Amino acid sequence: MWTKLRRYLGHLRSIPAMRADLVAAKRDLAYVREALGRVENRQVSAGNIRLADKEFRVFSQWGEDGIIQHLIRNVPIMERTFVEFGVESYREANTRFLLINNNWSGLIIDSDQQHIDAITSEDLYWRYTLTAVCSFITPSNINSLIQQNGFSGQIGLLSIDIDGMDYWVWKSLTVVTPAIVVIEYNARFGPTRAVTVPLDDKFVRSAAHHSNIYYGASLQALVKLGRDKGYAFVGCNTNGNNAFFVRFDLMPSDWHNLSAPEGFVRCRFREARKSDGQLQFLSGEGEAELLAGLPLVEV
Predict the structure, then answer these.
(1) Phi, psi for residue 95 in degrees, rounded to 5
(2) Are residues 73 and 164 in the same domain?
(3) Same domain? 268 vs 151
(4) pLDDT tens-digit series, residues 239-256
(5) Rounded to two decimals, what is the model's pTM?
């Protein structure tokens, strides 16, 4: 019995060391990812402007890191700053590689305090100029949130991915003028309809409909809004969930302002859920049936 007890106590004493090793391993893995991202960034061709040819992933969910690197190489950036909403723990985000690789500064916002605590406890929070704020984002509070945290006027990049009021938040946003905008669209609404979910400051995707695919706006709606706000639509990622916009006055002369049907990419992922929360792995037609009859606003 005493032998077993000593072994158990020895195991308990080793737990802090094991945790320290795990933290160090995670940090080293992040460094490897950053290094590989820099190598891939150098190998991406500077020629054509097809966004699909520029994709690579370091910290972004899909290929947005590569697209963003391509954009900042070609679009004049007055202020090397960014604002990104809906970052969760910031392990997977559109601006993390921009922060680390290009040493930009920025503001990130998420509605979960645990996520913000995780971000502020990381080394990158003191290594780089980053502000992390916990808040539930709405069209009503977005301008004050950004301005109160020291950002206004021209910024380099804005990334919006809040799974709900994306269209309404961008429409309401006036306190910053980004050179580049990355915004999530819902490809299930198709390439030609200009629609969004109705304005609702309390909208939560998981509560709005059990399918979890009723959220956001169509690409056409965002292209129309972008045009009204002074932005050209330059393409989507190949996974069909993020659209990229460049301010008209900063866009290279040989780039094209695409229409929504020209640049539309249908989403490749299948995330529709049953009422019990289980994934259904539906086709595009099956997802369309789930969304039929749910309220949408023509814009």
Answers:
(1) -115, -5
(2) yes
(3) yes
(4) 999 999 999 999 999 999
(5) 0.86
